[in-house]
Each structure stands twice: as structure tokens, then as C-alpha cells.
Amino acid sequence: MRDKNIQLYKIGKKLGLSSKDINRTLFSLETKYTYISKIIFKIIFFLIIIFLSISMIILEINIIENTYPAGTL
């Protein structure tokens, strides 16, 4: 990753871009991918929470039900 950034920096200098323009371009590419990864992480996190809450409700219903009918013991 670092080698690619150095190569992009050298190419930008050869094209006559200023350091500010090169840095802006490099950081915008990184923030784009981090933004997408944050959204994916949030979606996965919410799916896990929904799955856990549904499974807890199902387990609670099974725990509340009596094993033996009333009056058999």
C-alpha cells in the first residue's frame, strides 16, 4: 500500500500537480473505502443484534413452557 502511494505521488509530481492536490486525491480514495466499510460493518452489526434478540425470545418461550403438564407430579 505504501509503495503504491509513493508511486502515485511520483506520478503526480511528474504531471505537475502540487502536493496538496496529490494528498487530497489519495485521502479521498481512502475515505471512500472506509466509508463503505463502516456502512457494511453497521449492517452486519444490526443483523447480528436482530438475530440474537430473536433467538433470545425463542429460548425464553421454550424456558417458560412447563416440561410436565400441571398436576402430573
Description:
The chain crosses the membrane at residues 39-64. Keywords: Membrane, Transmembrane, Transmembrane helix. The chain starts with a helix and ends in a 9-residue tail after the last helix. It has helices spanning 2-15, 19-64. Helices cover 82% and strands 0% of the residues. It is rod-shaped. The model has no long low-confidence stretch (mean pLDDT 80). It is mainly α. It contains 2 helices and no strands. The protein has a domain at 18-62.
Question: Can I get a quick summary?
Answer:
The chain has 73 residues and is an all-alpha fold. The protein has a domain at 18-62. Helices cover 82% and strands 0% of the residues.
Any idea what the radius of gyration is? 28 Å
- Morphology: rod-shaped
Give the termini distance in whole angstroms: 70 Å
Measured by DSSP, the beta-strand proportion falls in under 5%
What pattern of helices and strands is seen along the backbone? HH
- Helix percent reads over 70%
Overall mean pLDDT stands at 80
Number of contiguous helices = 2
Poorly predicted runs are none
- Sheet with the most strands? none
Structural class call reads mainly alpha
Give the total of beta strands: 0
Transmembrane segments: 39-64
Keywords: Membrane, Transmembrane, Transmembrane helix
